[in-house]
Task: inverse folding
């Protein structure tokens, strides 16, 4: 049943994406308030006047922020609704937008999905509120994310996921394996570990679009180039080749645990040492601490392995912003909340709640960097995360229909994980399918 | 199916008590197969056993897993108990977690079932009775529409229904779940068939001759005769509404109006959220609590349910 409904959901996403394309081509833009200047005084007046705003977000730390915000501005009520996580929420948002009813005033959107909503002008350009002045407050990756490859500012970054290598030190110590600093060493460590314990794997991977694109990002590949409705997709650059050559070894030698991330099996593997490392975003500690309690003290954090020895390339994995859907109401109040949560007092509240910030003030503060993580045996892991955040190249872009593209990842690249298809061929198939879909949607797509 | 002996359990009950017991003895040691004592088939027994296992193992897993803590779930074998028995803690935590939202979901589900399934049954009974017992123009057309409606899966209609409700401003309210649940083409069809078999035309005529109005004939003469059918339809619609997932999923965004199915799913999704707290033990315990009322309903209404299914299968 869950599997079935997920497929149904995916179908709905597709239908909605199609509908979205149609309306975009039909030119449904009825002006809206994009670009209209709203002064600080207008926002203050709205706060004084009060009212209710509906916020769609799944980020758990926002609960406290909403409560604090209501306390600070007694006339304002924040209706925080968890309308589902990632794609589920996008489906709901897309449905509400096509129905033109029930659109929230504020919506959480991940960076990879930003383009899909921004390009079709479904999100308010916050430049009208003077948001571009806030750019210096954020680290480069997330700020690049909210610009979605265009000139507008379609949201304020909420969190970010600079990548690092989480590893189970107990397992590494037991088999006397060095913590890898390059991806070549990582492959060697994978071999050594699996040989020492056939039940243990260096990591799990069954094909994950978010992970693969992040790895490409770090390897220097820039498969997507977006200029308005002109898009090019190319997975054949040197960076992509670097990644596929290395990862293919792990696939060929069956060194990756066939466990899907976020499943109960995954949590189990992280706990019992059969999944020894995770290369993922800096938001991971909260999940480890609450979901893998039994391995507290076993895990540590190391910088993300590099493609060239001594390199310092970083990449973002995950992370999201708060946006103002064009059809939402109460724009001034909505912006005031977003600014409070993501640029004002709310940031500190969220960091204390375990979120990983996107603001440089927090990332570079002594207090943040000195925070000791009991879960990581007292390690000051934020130092590693903050450095990683600073090293993210900011010229990456996602497709304006990345949500759809990611949904077909497993039909194309996924084959490399279950059959003899090469990873590079899988990426080529993904490229072709993405090009076809983009052309159908009215984009000018070049390979 | 190809068994030479057709077994009709009802008939064995009406056979003389001694007959089936003495007959085999008179005819020597070889067993004869009578309707009361059908031949045992190893193949059928094995197949039934497999089906039994197939349906009971997940249930056993659920019951066993509900006794484990979050860590226990990860470290122990699925079909056996973990060292520490955490069932009571789990139940308590299920009802208190996140400010006791589970209770709210339970009440929501009850509301949807009582109003939605209850209403659907009521409408199906009224409609089925009318279609079976009254001759009016357009009856065939109604029949065609109902049969057609049975064939359309509810999920296919979900998105159009969403757009329609959204235009009426009803999404995110309980009505968005209740109103579509009120319609049960299959229930109507079943009631129709049942009513035409169960209520003799002579009885209705007699009631009318005695001066009973149409309402009185329906409520005092027809309704008691329809009871087994009503219970059958009620069970059908109850199960459908209780387990309804897709409709509320697209209609309801406000967790305060979630039914249990959506609520449990949102707890499950916490494990897939950056910064979320995995609560698999609560999802499992919550699921167990969720199915208990359905199991109770089936056991309590079993008698009616069976006689309802068999209605019309034997010609008297």
Result:
């Amino acid at each position: 049943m869950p599997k079935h409904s997920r497929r149904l959901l995916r179908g709905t996403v597709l239908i909605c994406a199609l509908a979205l394309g149609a309306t975009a081509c039909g030119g449904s833009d009825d002006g809206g308030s994009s670009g209209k200047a709203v002064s600080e005084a207008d926002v203050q007046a709205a706060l004084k006047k009060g009212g209710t705003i509906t916020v769609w977000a799944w980020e758990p730390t926002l609960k406290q922020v909403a409560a604090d915000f209501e306390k600070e501005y007694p006339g304002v009520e924040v209706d925080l609704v968890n309308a589902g996580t990632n794609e589920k929420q996008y489906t709901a948002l897309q449905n509400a937008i096509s129905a033109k009813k029930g659109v929230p005033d504020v919506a959480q959107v991940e960076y990879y999905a930003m383009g899909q909503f921004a390009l079709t002008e479904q999100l308010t350009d916050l430049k009208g509120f003077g948001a571009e002045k806030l750019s210096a407050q954020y680290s480069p990756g997330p700020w690049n994310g909210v610009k979605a490859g265009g000139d507008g500012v379609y949201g304020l970054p909420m969190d970010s996921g600079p990548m690092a290598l989480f590893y189970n030190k107990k397992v590494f110590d037991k088999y006397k394996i060095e913590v890898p600093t390059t991806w070549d060493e990582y492959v060697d460590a994978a071999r050594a570990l699996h040989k020492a314990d056939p039940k243990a794997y260096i990591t799990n991977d069954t094909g994950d679009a978010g992970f693969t694109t992040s790895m490409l990002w770090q390897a220097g590949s820039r498969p997507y180039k977006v200029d308005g409705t002109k898009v090019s997709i190319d997975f054949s650059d040197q960076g992509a080749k670097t990644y596929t050559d290395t990862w293919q070894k792990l696939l060929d030698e069956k060194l990756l645990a066939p466990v899907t991330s976020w499943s109960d099996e995954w949590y189990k593997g992280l706990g019992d040492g059969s999944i020894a490392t995770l290369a993922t975003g800096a938001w991971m500690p909260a999940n480890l601490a609450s979901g893998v309690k039994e391995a507290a003290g076993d895990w540590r954090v190391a910088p993300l392995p590099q493609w060239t020895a001594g390199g310092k390339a970083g990449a973002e994995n995950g992370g999201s912003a708060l946006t103002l859907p064009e059809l939402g109401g109460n724009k001034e109040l909505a912006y005031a909340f977003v600014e409070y949560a993501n640029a004002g007092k709310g940031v500190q509240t969220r960091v204390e709640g375990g979120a990983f910030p996107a603001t440089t003030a927090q990332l570079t503060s002594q207090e943040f960097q000195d925070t000791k993580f009991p879960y990581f045996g007292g390690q000051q892991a934020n130092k590693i995360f903050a450095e990683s955040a600073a090293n993210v190249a900011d010229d990456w872009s996602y497709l304006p229909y990345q949500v759809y593209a990611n949904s077909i990842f497993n039909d194309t690249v996924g084959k490399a994980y279950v059959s003899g298809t090469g990873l590079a061929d899988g990426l080529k198939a993904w490229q072709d399918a993405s090009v076809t879909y983009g052309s159908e949607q009215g984009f000018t797509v070049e390979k | 199916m190809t068994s030479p002996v057709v077994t009709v359990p009802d008939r064995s009950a009406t056979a003389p008590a001694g007959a089936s017991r003495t007959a085999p003895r008179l005819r020597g040691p070889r067993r004869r197969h009578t309707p009361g004592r059908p031949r045992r088939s190893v193949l059928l027994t094995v197949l039934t056993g497999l089906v039994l296992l197939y349906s009971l193992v997940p249930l056993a897993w659920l019951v066993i897993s509900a006794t484990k803590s979050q860590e226990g779930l990860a470290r122990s074998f699925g079909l056996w108990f973990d060292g520490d028995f955490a069932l009571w803690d789990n139940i308590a935590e299920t009802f208190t977690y996140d400010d006791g939202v589970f209770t709210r979901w339970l009440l929501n589900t009850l509301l949807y079932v009582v109003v939605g399934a209850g209403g659907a049954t009521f409408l199906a009974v009224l409609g089925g009775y009318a279609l079976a017992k009254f001759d009016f123009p357009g009856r065939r057309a109604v029949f065609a529409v109902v049969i057609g409606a049975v064939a359309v899966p509810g999920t296919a209609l979900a998105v159009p229904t969403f757009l329609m409700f959204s235009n009426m401003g009803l999404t995110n309210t309980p009505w968005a779940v209740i109103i579509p649940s009120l319609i049960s083409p299959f229930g109507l069809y079943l009631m129709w068939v049942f009513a035409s078999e169960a209520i003799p035309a002579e009885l209705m005529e007699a009631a009318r001759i005695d001066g009973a109005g149409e309402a009185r004939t329906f409520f005092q003469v027809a309704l008691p005769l329809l009871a087994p059918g009503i219970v059958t339809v009620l069970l059908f619609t109850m199960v459908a509404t209780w387990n309804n997932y897709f409709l509320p999923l697209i209609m309801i965004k406000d967790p305060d109006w979630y039914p249990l199915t959506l609520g449990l799913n949102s707890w499950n999704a916490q494990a897939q959220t950056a910064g979320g707290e995995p609560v698999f033990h609560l999802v499992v315990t919550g699921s167990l609590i969720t199915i208990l009322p359905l199991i109770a309903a089936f056991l309590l209404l079993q008698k009616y349910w069976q006689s309802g299914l068999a209605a019309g299968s034997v010609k008297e």
